[in-house]
Input
Amino acid sequence: MLNAFIKVALFVILLLPGYALFSANADFVVAQDGSGNYTSIQKAIDACKAFPESRVTIFVKNGVYHEKVQVPSCNSQLTIIGESAAETIISYDDYFDKINRGRNSTFYTSTLLVQANDFMLENITVENTAGPVGQAVALHVEGDRCVFRNCRFLGNQDTVYAAGRFSRQYFINCYVEGTTDFIFGEATALFEKCTIHAKANSFLTAASTPEGKPFGLVFLKCKITAHSGVNKVYLGRPWRKFAKTAFLNCEMGSFIVPEGWDNWSNPENEKTAQFVEFKNNGLGADTSKRVRWSAQLGNDEALKFTIENIFAPLSWEVFSGGEMVRVIKLKI
Output
């Protein structure tokens, strides 16, 4: 019956059970007070079956879990659901100089590292509390078909690393804050109905999209906000020369600089980076003074930015607490 349903539906939204029901139906429960199976999120992940035939769910009760969490590639089809986004918190404080592993130490600083495919995180805060000390990642995602729903990602520089040359990531109803390049990487990542909050005058994004990839970082119907006193924020700059970033139907405050984008002090990037906008609104959405090497999409071009196109070519089933909340039937 489910397979037949998938064949005829592009998107299906179903009613979600309460989080109490999630807890009762979860494979493992994590609670700091000892009322669950484990007091550590990592220990619960380590207890999960490798490469399971069906989805495994971990329910995490409210609390601040001070631990560095890794979801290895063998833990595919894993869902982690928190009791509440504001009070279920994964927290750590690694940063570039603290790790001290040479020039690539940024990539070891994450609080949560996801290497598995078909991962889902819901209703949880992931934070890097190192402060404004340089590169300090909160979320690092390498897996494909990963979903983040109603989550908060808190940090400063490099908060969310959307990694993986062939990775596709979907952020829905999430909150992301930071200072410099705080959403960055080479993945195809869609942020839908998210709040993106700038804590300093700097750059929101730093895409490193590989050459030939049709989509990079995409922001759809998002709200771009900023701390009081912040007044000079760029939408993005190219970490690598074929960077692709798009903002469509987003709300932008006056703190967005009129030119919008930066070339990372390299005019050659202007020939290859693709930075585009479409029908954004708010005081920061005025495109009359945007850099000439960025583009405003026409209606036909904007129609290409659908979830089917962005995440093609594979079918993708999105679950929440064991219940399917969206079925995405993509091109095979």
Notes: The mean pLDDT is 89. The chain is about 10% helix and 35% strand. Residues 15 and 90 are 27 Å apart (CA to CA). Helices lie at 2-8, 19-25, 41-47, 96-99, 299-302, 307-310.
